[in-house]
Amino acid sequence: MKAYQEWLEAWDRARGWDRVSPSHTLVHVMEELGEVARLMLAWEGYKEAPGPEALHDALEEELSDVFVFLFKLAYQLDVDVEAALVRGQAKAEGRYDDVTAARAMLARYHARQAEAADRLLKGPGTG
Ligand SMILES: [Mg+2]
Fold first, then answer.
1. pLDDT cut 90: percent of the chain above it
2. Residues 34, 7: one domain?
3. Cα–ligand 1 centroid distance for 98 (angstroms)
4. 8 and 60: one domain?
5. pTM (2 decimals)?
6. Residue 67 pLDDT > 90, yes or no?
7. SS3 21
8. Same domain, yes or no: 33 and 80
C-alpha cells in the first residue's frame, strides 16, 4: 500500500497533478463515489443493469477510481494510508471485538430492513 501511495504521488508530481487543492481532490472522490452509487442502483435492481459481468467490471473500475483519489487526498494531507489503516484496524478490534454482540447488531439491522421492505411492499398507511 505504501508503495502504491508513493507511486501515485510520483506519477502525479511528474505531471504537476499534485498541485491541486485537496478540497478539489475530495470533490473528485465524491464524483467517483457518485459513479459507484449509480452502479449500485443497477446492482440492486433500482436501475437497468448492463448485465452482471459488465456491471461487475464497471464497479471494479469505479471503485478503483475512488481509491486513486482517496490515496491522492491522503498524500496531499501527509497521511500514510498504510499506517492509518493499521490504526483503524486496532480501533475496530477494540470496538467490535465481541463477535456475539456484533452478530446481534446485524440481526437487529436485518429485522429493521425486513420491516422496511414489508412496508414498501404493502404500501402507504399500512403501518
Ligand atoms: Mg470513474
1. 95
2. yes
3. 37
4. yes
5. 0.88
6. yes
7. coil
8. yes
Cell reading at 38? 449509480
State the Cα–Cα distance between residues 69 and 103, nearest whole angstrom.
33
Dist CA 24 CA 112 (whole Å)? 37
CA–centroid distance, 9 to ligand 1, in Å, is 19
Element (H, E) at 123: none
- Whole-number Å distance, alpha carbon 28 to ligand 1 midpoint, is 9
Asked whether residue 13 falls in the same domain as residue 67, the answer is yes
Over residues 42-53, the pLDDT tens digits come to 999 999 988 999
Residue 91 counted as domain residue: no
* 34 lies in the same domain as 71: yes
- The domain in which residue 123 lies consists of 96-127
Half-sphere exposure of 85 (CA within 13 A, CB side): 8
Rounded to the nearest angstrom, the distance between the alpha carbon of 58 and the centre of ligand 1 is: 9
Joined grid coordinates for residue 110: 436485518
Residues 6+ away with beta carbon under 8 Å from 70: 29, 81
